[in-house]
Design a protein that fits this description.
A four-stranded mixed beta sheet has the order 4-3-6-5, with helices on one face. It has a two-stranded antiparallel ribbon with strand order 1-2. It is 31% helix and 15% strand. It is globular, with a radius of gyration of 20 Å. It has 178 residues and is an alpha+beta fold.
């Protein structure tokens, strides 16, 4: 699936799904067929079984709570999946959503707080950019790998001492630190 199709489907789901809980939710395209569903509110938990069976031709699993505290979150996931299935009825590109990687956000100490380092992430892949944000790095957007070193030089004048840089490509972890 293209990212453009994913954005269109996420727009459709945002308009169709109504979750009744004391909190907020959002759904955003990541890339291609991947999107992120975020539930924010009190008494939510991440210990829920993935709905992705990890096999083609096998029906999705139910979002089963793995603890008593996760039941409200599993119920929200179940409501989202059912409403998403209804909203996607007749769609050629997708007919359901698979949810995996349930987790409750626990803030990480930033690299600046722990080690006094400020950093810049020059990654292309969304996972690296997200991880970098979690660690408190600035995240450059837009350019491809050929322009990434120019961003480093622009952000860090020659008076700064470089402690390391690995801008090898956009697939491994091309992050610069100072």
């Amino acid at each position: 699936m293209s990212s453009e199709t994913n954005r269109r489907l996420c727009d459709r789901l945002r308009g169709a799904v109504q979750l009744d809980f004391d909190g907020e939710w959002f759904l955003e395209t990541v890339a291609e067929h991947r999107a992120v569903l975020v539930l924010r509110g009190a008494n939510l938990a991440g210990d829920i079984q993935d709905t992705d069976p990890q096999a083609t031709g096998v029906p999705p699993r139910e979002p089963m709570a793995l603890s008593a505290t996760a039941r409200p979150t599993a119920e929200l996931a179940h409501a989202f999946i059912g409403q998403a299935r209804d909203a996607l009825a007749g769609e050629k590109s997708a007919n359901a959503v698979l949810l995996r990687g349930f987790q409750r956000h626990a803030p990480l100490p930033t690299l600046q707080a722990r080690f006094g380092l400020k950093g810049l992430c020059l990654a292309h892949y969304p996972m690296y950019r997200g991880l970098s944000r979690l660690l408190g790095l600035d995240v450059a957007t837009g350019p491809t790998s050929t322009a990434r070193m120019g961003i480093c030089r622009a952000r860090w004048p020659s008076s700064r001492r470089w402690t390391g840089c690995c801008p090898a490509c956009s697939i491994c972890s091309p992050m610069c630190w100072w």
